[in-house]
């Protein structure tokens, strides 16, 4: 990850992720975003996952974020949800230190992964049926259920997000079906020449069969069809090998810093 190409791709991933969040946050019921110098404070009590209720550090100029960190965390906490800090590893070590001093000592590591169109490798073997949700509200309800089961969370946790009907320019939500049964979902979002992959979810009973890889691959392919040449995502530990097989490479690492005593649903 130390070579110039990886650094360039990490910077591109960062920029694209900021653009994607600028689209996603307004889609969530009651969400707020406050922009600081080199950081953002996002909060969405209707969608109580850590990434949507956090201080996101966007650059190496960390002094403003450090100075405002205590009040930013309290701003999120005052909305009734546990706050977090998200920072690219090594980008702002002072923020990491200050977050720890303020009690956010649990660290979850999330690989930032990137894929260029020439490296893309679709999964081998027969594909499940891959259906775009579009404006079909029945399919939207199916997608919410499969996503929730994929993250092993109650479906109502996603109400605040899915109330938007998941409609935005450049956004495609996919469901994989096998013999008429929904087995996985993936969300692709295109901005310019970049496609971000989000909410890949496969229920436990359908895992290790390649369905998540196929759903991800279709979201990537659709992005490339729409003119993207660069795909990116933040990976879980479980999904890392799946994405590698598609050609994704780790180009950076994100740290999710939380209070060990706080409950987060995802």
Describe this structure in words.
The chain folds into 2 domains: 113 residues, no CATH class; 137 residues, Gcn5-related N-acetyltransferase (GNAT) (Aminopeptidase), CATH 3.40.630. Helix 2 runs parallel beside helix 3. The protein is an alpha+beta fold. It has an 11-stranded mixed β-sheet, with helices on both faces.
Give, in spatial order, the strands making up the sheet with the most strands.
Answer: 1-2-3-4-11-5-10-9-8-7-6
Strand content: 25-35%
Q: How many domains is the backbone divided into?
A: 2
Label the structural class. Answer: alpha+beta
Which consecutive residue ranges, at least 5 long each, have pLDDT under 50? none
How many E-type strands?
11
- Which outline best applies? globular
Brief digest:
The chain has 266 residues and is an alpha+beta fold. Helix content is 33%, strand content 29%. The chain has two domains: 4-111 and 254-258, no CATH class; 116-252, Gcn5-related N-acetyltransferase (GNAT) (Aminopeptidase).
């Amino acid at each position: 990850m130390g070579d110039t190409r990886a650094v360039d791709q990490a910077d591109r991933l960062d920029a694209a992720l900021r653009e994607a969040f600028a689209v996603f946050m307004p889609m969530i019921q009651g969400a707020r975003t406050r922009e600081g110098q080199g950081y953002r404070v996002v909060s969405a009590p209707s969608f109580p996952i850590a990434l949507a209720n956090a201080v996101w550090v966007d650059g190496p100029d960390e002094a403003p974020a450090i100075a405002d960190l205590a009040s930013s965390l309290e701003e999120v906490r005052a909305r009734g949800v546990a706050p977090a800090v998200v920072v690219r590893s090594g980008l702002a070590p002072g923020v990491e230190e200050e977050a720890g001093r303020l009690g956010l000592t649990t660290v979850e590591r999330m690989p930032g992964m990137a894929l260029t169109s020439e490296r893309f490798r679709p999964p081998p073997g027969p594909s499940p049926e891959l259906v775009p949700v579009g404006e079909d509200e029945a399919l939207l309800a199916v997608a919410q259920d499969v996503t929730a089961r994929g993250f092993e969370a109650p479906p109502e946790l996603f109400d605040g997000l899915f109330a938007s009907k998941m409609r935005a320019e450049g956004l495609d939500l996919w469901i994989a079906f096998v013999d008429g049964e929904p087995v996985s979902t993936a969300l692709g979002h295109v901005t310019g020449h970049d496609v971000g992959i989000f909410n890949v979810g496969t229920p436990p009973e359908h895992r290790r069969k390649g369905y998540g890889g196929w759903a991800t691959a279709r979201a990537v392919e659709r992005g490339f069809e729409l003119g993207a040449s660069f795909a990116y995502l933040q990976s879980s530990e479980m999904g890392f090998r799946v994405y590698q097989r598609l050609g994704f490479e780790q180009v950076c690492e994100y740290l999710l810093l939380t209070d060990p005593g706080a409950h987060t649903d995802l």
